Amino acid sequence: MTPALFFAATIIFAAGVAAGTLATVFMRKKTPKVSRGAVLIDSSKVAGRGAFALKAIKKGDIVERCPALEVTDKDIGGELLNYVFYGSAEDRRLIAMGYGMMFNHSSTPNVAYYREDGPTGAELVIYALRNIAEGEEMYYNYGDDWWTTRGETGE
Ligand SMILES: C[S@@+](CC[C@H](N)C(=O)[O-])C[C@H]1O[C@@H](n2cnc3c(N)ncnc32)[C@H](O)[C@@H]1O
């Protein structure tokens, strides 16, 4: 490669990096928070991200129906273990899509869930245990086992 060609390639590469950096900063400012239906994903006070009510939700209302995929426990490992639900047998796990895996835990939960097996497959249905105000974070109770098996405690 001649010095002139090397110089031109360096300039083009640097311009690409600068354009990419600017685009990232610009896009980040413009990108709205993620939301769908009644649920907004935002920063949680208890852990990382959490699920928040985009509007007032009445006791008993369905917050989200999550299409779910049942797999064996061998399919699940690492950090994913902290995100899946129990399945139809001890060695089965349920992967809830949508925002189902983004709800944090509380021992005084405002939502709960049940499984429904319809003609198109399993769903995890999340519903309100009480009236929930717009903007409130929504929590379900992971259960004592969840915390003791990890040697942790949740509020
Ligand atoms: C199903 S995820 C919930 C979404 C998670 N906060 C995130 O940002 O991806 C479970 C993870 O959140 C953490 N978590 C959920 N509720 C919590 C709580 N009340 N206190 C501390 N950590 C919590 C758990 O330790 C676990 O790692």
Helix-strand makeup class = alpha+beta
Number of helices: 2
Note the run of SSEs as H and E: HEEEEEEEEEEH
Going by CATH, the architecture of the largest domain would be Beta Complex
Helix content: 10-25%
Principal-axis shape equals elongated
Number of domains: 2
Share in β-strands: 25-35%
Strand order, largest beta sheet? 1-2-3-10-7
Task: Write a compact overview of the structure shown.
This protein is of the alpha+beta class. It folds into 2 domains: 1-31; 35-148, Beta Complex (Beta-clip-like). It is built from 2 helices and 10 strands, in the order H-E-E-E-E-E-E-E-E-E-E-H.
Tell me what you see in this structure.
With 155 residues, the protein is of the alpha+beta class. It has two helices and ten strands. The chain has two domains: 1-31; 35-148, Beta-clip-like, CATH 2.170.270.10. It has helices at 3-30, 144-148; strands spanning 35-36, 39-43, 49-53, 62-72, 85-86, 92-96, 104-105, 111-118, 121-128, 137-140. The strands form two sheets. A five-stranded mixed sheet has the order 1-2-3-10-7, with no helix packed on it. It is elongated, with a radius of gyration of 22 Å. The model has no long low-confidence stretch (mean pLDDT 90).
